[in-house]
Design brief:
By secondary structure, the chain is α/β, with parallel strands linked by helices. Helices cover 38% and strands 19% of the residues. The strands form two sheets. It has a nine-stranded mixed β-sheet with strand order 4-3-5-2-1-6-10-11-9, sandwiched between helices. It has a two-stranded antiparallel sheet with strand order 7-8. Helix 2 crosses helix 4, helix 6 packs parallel to helix 8 and helix 7 runs antiparallel to helix 8. It is globular, with a radius of gyration of 17 Å.
């Protein structure tokens, strides 16, 4: 990540924004909160206006969480497929809000569902981005036992993104859960190995390893703070950065 940008010049050419399903629920905790969608739509439009190519990977935890369902006896693969369908619902809602904000979008699904989304094809996704469209990746990787964090890392590597930015409800990575431990400190920069060794929960281990192997930086930031996506794209020091070096 470059240190600051020149007079509004973007620090990145192509980004992947990783959104959890819970982020779309807002304060209601479940389902989809339209004002949250509208705000995300406006913020993404501001970034595309800078000429940055934006892809979004969306989770489904606001509707259905496969891991939770499998914990109470449902077959894990079945539960995960149901979770993938939840991500498609979220992707369509996000597409609607983005297009209302004046942004051209395409939803690409890892599970074929031609009536509502295009099938995921890597070259097609890149072509859409080059044409200035926001691409929303739905249905995770299309495989059970993989999280949407892993899907985000995988898609970012596949399309040659410069960074993956992960939206959370806190302003970065902390040494411990700040809601539980008041002495927890925010870590501005840290390495992939630190995240793995300390179990900091930035992303699951598969996603972190994939980013580490491909030297893909991760920025963890607070989605609730308006304007943060644009600030990150402009190279401002927002949230926490995970990379090969903590320097």
């Amino acid at each position: 990540m470059t240190a600051g940008a020149d007079a509004g010049r973007p620090a990145f050419r192509r980004i992947v924004l990783k959104l959890s399903g819970e982020a779309l629920a807002g304060r209601q905790g479940y389902g989809i909160d339209p004002p949250v969608l509208d705000r995300i739509g406006e913020e993404v439009r501001e970034v595309t206006d800078l000429g940055v190519q934006v892809a979004i990977v969306i989770g489904g935890g606001n509707i259905f969480r496969g891991v939770a369902a499998s914990a109470v006896g449902m077959d894990r693969a079945t539960a995960d497929y149901m979770g993938m369908l939840a991500t498609i619902i979220n992707a369509l809602a996000l597409q609607d809000s983005l297009e209302k904000a004046g942004v051209q979008t395409r939803v690409l699904s890892a599970i074929e569902m031609r009536a509502v989304a295009e099938p995921y094809i890597r070259r097609r996704a890149i072509r859409h981005l080059e044409k200035g469209r926001v691409v929303i990746f739905a249905a995770g990787t299309g495989n059970p036992f993989f999280t949407t964090d892993t899907a985000g890392a995988l898609r970012a590597v596949e399309i040659g993104a410069d960074v993956i930015i992960k939206a959370t409800k806190v302003d970065g990575v902390y040494s411990a859960d700040p809601k539980i431990d008041p002495s927890a400190k925010r870590l501005a920069r840290l390495t992939y190995i630190e995240v793995l060794n300390r179990g900091l929960g930035v992303m699951d281990t598969t996603a972190i390893s994939l980013c580490m192997d491909n030297k893909l930086p991760i920025v963890v930031f607070d989605l609730m703070q308006s304007g943060n996506i644009k600030r990150i794209v402009l190279g401002e020091p927002v949230g926490s950065i995970v990379g090969s070096s903590a320097e």
